[in-house]
Every structure is written in structure tokens, then in C-alpha cells.
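Rotation project, supervised by the postdoc (A.L.). Task for the rotation student: set up a whole-complex structure prediction and record inputs and outputs verbatim in this book. Inputs entered:
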Amino acid sequence: MKKGSTEPTLLALNIDRLMRRIHAELQPRAADFDHHQVGPLGGMLLLTIGERGSVDIQSVVAALGRDKSQISRLIQRFERKGLLTRETSPTDGRVSLLSLTKSGRDQVESIKDVLTVIVDGLFNGLSRDEKAMFAAILERVLMEDER
Amino acid sequence: MKKGSTEPTLLALNIDRLMRRIHAELQPRAADFDHHQVGPLGGMLLLTIGERGSVDIQSVVAALGRDKSQISRLIQRFERKGLLTRETSPTDGRVSLLSLTKSGRDQVESIKDVLTVIVDGLFNGLSRDEKAMFAAILERVLMEDER
DNA sequence: TATTGTTATACTCTATAACTATA
DNA sequence: TATAGTTATAGAGTATAACAATA
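Outputs recorded:
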């Protein structure tokens, strides 16, 4: 396989470009699946909560890499929209635990369906092994950086 | 090597997370290198112009995957700041050709220095081959999608 | 004292559409 | 008629700091 340039600046630009490709394909289809006007970040927030069942806000904030104030406001908006509920943790009164409602889970499913088509399309030219390798390296970089 | 999950939704979330890690490390150091207050997108714009020498706006817009109106305004701001110049193409009066000034090139160098440290740090745990493979797959995905 | 989450604020980024000018 | 780039505008995303409540 031809080797790619590991020049760090180009690598950073290319990671951004890939993310933008995904957004650029999601955007025009928003009317079809974004029934609650959650937006791109909101979608990722719901996806992240859905992945984990019942989570505290701090974990979601860490997973998304955004500021807690930003996530806090999104959560309030989504609570008002009936996409999620929260309850105070029984063991720590400072902590709110989030769960998706039926409506929230439905929204997550619509997003996943569209995202699957888009991502599969983008990675179409890769073999199964190459996809697995790319995904594995990505996971390792993220995990190692967490420590 | 352990295989990564190729579940498309997780892949998309992870690509976003990686981009956010880079931004999160750049942000607090902005005062040290962002002397002209160009911001993250502005930095990528300058990097993209620097990569190519003399470019028309449309190429830059395509490379960054943003809307042309957004890039148009940034370019005007940077022209006023003396970071770049533009001249009308001799062969097509509609086209503006962009070039960095000395000040713009210096700004690009500062950004590259910081970005190199951050990206190298993130990919630290990978072997040279793994880095090259990751970069190559990324380039292929972006290229194949262009057609 | 430290941590969880909220509020306020200022700024940057994004999408859309309507526009001017050149081709 | 089509393309390159601009302007206007509304909305979404971001960082920071100061804050209240709980630990």
C-alpha cells in the first residue's frame, strides 16, 4: 500500500476534512431525520447518552470534548423537548443521571441510520481489514491520550 | 493488532473526538502563537493557502469543506490584517488569486510548530508504520470521495 | 476546599439565499 | 446561462469566568 504523509500539519488538516465531509453530507438531509432540531452537536450528545444507558453529565462532557457549560445548556433544551430525563444520583446529590426517553431513542435511531449510510459510503473503497485497522488505530490514539 | 470496531456511528464519533483533542490542546496555547487572532478556522485557511503558494478562493473553499461565504469574509479580514494579498487572475477576471505575505507566512510557521508538537504527542504510541498506514488510509478516503 | 453542574457573556463558526461581476 | 466571489442574516458552537449546591 502506498504510504501516506505523516507530516503532522497535513494529518491534522486531513482529520478535519474527513469530519467536514461527514457534516457536509448530513446537513442537506437534516430535514429528513433531525425531527427535533437537535443539530450536529446535539446529535452526538444523544448518540453518546444512548451508547451508555444512564450517564452523568461529566462523562458525556469528557466523551464529547466540549465545555460543560455548552453541554449543560443543550441538556436543558433536550429535557424540555422530552428527548431525555434526568434524576439526581442517589449516592451523590451533585450528580445528575441522564437517560433517553422513547422519543430520544427514536431520534438516535434515525441519526444512526443516516450516519451509517454516509460513513459506509465514505469508507467504501477500503477493504474490511483496512477499515478495521483504521478504526483500531483511532481507538488506540484516543485511549492512550486519555491517560 | 487488536481490531477496532467498524461500527459507522462509533467511527464518526471517534473522528470528531480526535479533532476535538487537537483543538482542546491548541486552545489554551492560543495566546502563545495566535498573534493575529486568526482562530482555528483562520489557522487552517492560512495553512491551506501556504501549502499551495498562489490559489484561487474556490480551491481553498473545497479543501476546507466550508461555505464560500464564510471563507470570503475571513479572507477579507486577513487581507486587512496584512496576512495575505490578492490579485485578479490575468486569465479570468472573476478569479482572485491569494498569496501569503511575510507576516502570514510567519503566522503559518508558528501554527505549524505548535500543531506538530500536539499531533506528534497524540500519535506518540504508534509505530512509524502504523502512523504511515493511518495517514495513507485517511488520504485515500478523502481522495476517493472527491471523484 | 474540591467537585458537579448552572448562568452570563462575548465571540467564532455555519448555512442559506439573494446579489454583483465576469465569462 | 453559468461561474467566482460578496453581502446579509439568523442560528449554532465555543471558551471563559463567576456562581450555587453538595461533598
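Student's summary: Residues 102-122 of chain B form the longest helix (21 residues).
Supervisor addendum: Residues 23, 27, 40, 56-58, 61, 68-69, 71-73, 75-76, 92-96 of chain B lie near DNA strand D (CB under 10 Å from a C1').
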